[in-house]
Amino acid sequence: MKSTQYSDKVLDHFRNPRNVGTLEGQDVAVGRVGNPVCGDLMEIYIKVRDNVIEEIKFKTFGCGSAIATASMITELARGKTIDEALQISRKEVADELDGLPPVKMHCSNLAADALHNAIENYLSREKSAQKSLEKRRRLTKRIKGEKEFLHRGVYHELVDLSTLKGKRVLVLDRGATSIEVAIDLTGQTGRVIFLTGSKEISAGPELKKSLKQSDVKILYESEILEIKGTNDVEKVLIHDLNEDEEYELFVDSIIMLQKRE
């Protein structure tokens, strides 16, 4: 193909581009890329359902080849699974258009990059949503032994902290209030542990600073599986989410506030 010769397919997709426009909604992901050499800009919008690209649209500011490649890649990606769409290459785009002039091959790369960027943004958002869901499930699920030891070492509400003087206290992450309770407890006992399922503490900068400067020990990426004891709480079985290991921890009291923040 000559350096400036376009195939009939390229001309068709340039003159009659498919799937032009945008998509809106919480389930829409967008990929945005640009080429600093030629100034082309491209956006691809995807709506995914059951791991399949159900709808796809594009917007581009660029030459005829950029429009044609964006149009073609939306046709190739629609109806494909996420994994299948990730396999679409710039060569496949160019081949489906019966070739591109050598000086315009970068346009097919731009289209593939925009699609892949949209998919990556979708996957990143889904991963974040899944983590949030898992966190909510951990917060709401009943822990084995929780009901049995209620008021015998397990507390769902704030108690007179002086009654915990000198005891080994485990405070579960239930937001800012639980962090404040853990910090306040250090005035009654030097054995306070704050347990969270997250990799980092979710709180304002001042509260984070206060927690860091306190004597509270923090267990990250952890959850309680079971509360054990005879008459009162004696220990808990903890699951280390990062290492996927279980171990026992001796405690006297557990504060798991019911108010969610």
TrEMBL record:
InterPro entries, alphabetized: FAD/NAD-bd_sf (IPR036188), NIF_FeS_clus_asmbl_NifU-like (IPR017787), NIF_FeS_clus_asmbl_NifU_N (IPR002871)
**A Pfam short name:** NifU_N
Which molecular-function annotations from GO does this UniProt entry contain? iron ion binding; iron-sulfur cluster binding
Give residue ranges for domain NIF system FeS cluster assembly NifU N-terminal: 5-127
Tell me which domain of life the UniProt entry assigns to the organism this sequence originates from: Bacteria
- Which biological process annotations from GO are given for this protein? iron-sulfur cluster assembly
* Name used for this protein in its record: Nitrogen fixation protein NifU
